[in-house]
Specification:
The protein is mainly alpha-helical. The chain has eleven helices and two strands. It has a two-stranded antiparallel ribbon. It is globular. Mean pLDDT is 79; it is low at 303-314.
Length: 314
């Protein structure tokens, strides 16, 4: 026997208020959603294009075309640097875009580099090589999750926005592929042991989930002085010309420079922390002590012999 609740539910399903394939009834109104502006869609389209590049890089690595696979990762990293800046410039940031960017970063800079390294050389270590690839991908996911949580932390000082906590995921992806860059350069007599690649992959993964402060560079490029416009144009054109002409040399030098800058980022963070602590101590010292304020009040009773006992208020 069908219960009354099920009978009424089936009746409503059989005769819905707005059937999906029937025209609107006279006098009825459908809920109309607000149109999404193009300035919000454009950063998300760039993020999806970067995701397509990362997924294509996995396919190219599986086919043994590692040079094009690395090009896909580098292209995804460039697009990742563009979509966020474009969203902030167009004021098209959204919660959906932030979540989509985080998921795309996990695929592009966590899963894709790990699989490229495994297909290229780590598979020679069998299970140990796969474990290294897994650890790197998991570290990238944990690093991105921590980044999303720290965005909502209201207690962070304003200068902390200049630093990442741990190596960023795009930087980790570019750095972990350094052994492939070096092998493509073709130094005579140079052969990188697989065990060293295993250790290097784990080290980069641990740097991503570490507490090491890394300079973010988010404020770089937000404004260019008028006298520096032409030099910036020339520098950007020269960089891309070198990247296209000597990709492995440029990526190798850039990766080594980035790794060498990590100690300087840590020292800059410590300097900011020291100045912040000094400012807090100075502000605390400028405030009068509660006992001194009580002594200055007229009619206040002198302190008693027992310092642990508070003075009685009249």
């Amino acid at each position: 026997m069908v219960s009354p609740n099920k009978r009424s539910y089936n009746t409503r399903m059989a005769n819905p208020l707005f059937p999906p394939f029937e025209p609107d009834r006279p006098g009825s109104r459908r809920r109309r959603f607000r149109a999404i502006p193009i300035r919000t869609l454009l950063p998300n389209l760039i993020t999806l294009l970067a995701l397509c590049a990362g997924l294509t890089a996995i396919r190219l690595a599986a086919e043994g075309r590692y040079d094009w696979a690395l090009a896909g990762v580098v292209f995804a990293a460039m697009l990742d640097g563009i979509d966020g800046r474009l969203a902030r410039m167009l004021k098209g940031t959204s919660k959906f875009g932030a979540e989509l960017d985080s998921l795309a970063d996990f695929v592009n800079f966590g899963v894709t580099p790990a699989l490229i390294l495994y297909f290229w050389d780590l598979h020679n270590l069998k299970n140990a090589g796969w474990i290294a690839a897994l650890v790197f991908a998991i570290c990238a996911g944990l690093r991105l999750a921590r980044f999303n949580v720290m965005l909502d932390n209201p207690n962070r000082p304003s200068w902390a926005g200049n630093f990442f906590t741990g190596m960023p995921a795009p930087g980790g992806a570019i750095c972990v592929l350094l052994p492939i860059y070096v092998s493509f350069i073709g130094f005579p007599g140079l052969s990188i042991p697989t065990a060293l690649i295993f250790v290097y992959t784990l080290a980069i993964g641990l740097l991503m989930v570490s507490q090491l402060p890394v300079y973010s560079g988010k404020k770089v490029g937000m404004g260019v002085p008028p006298q520096m416009v032409l030099p910036v144009f020339v520098g950007v054109v020269a960089f891309f010309a070198l990247l296209l002409s000597f990709p492995w040399e440029v990526l190798t030098v850039g990766t080594l420079c980035f790794l060498a800058s990590l100690p300087f980022s840590w020292m800059a963070f410590q300097e900011y922390s020291r100045k912040d602590a000094e400012a807090a101590a100075a502000a605390h010292a400028a405030q009068p002590a509660p006992s001194a304020v009580a002594d200055e009040q007229p009619g206040a009773s002198p302190p008693s012999e027992n310092s642990e006992r508070p003075a009685r208020l009249n």
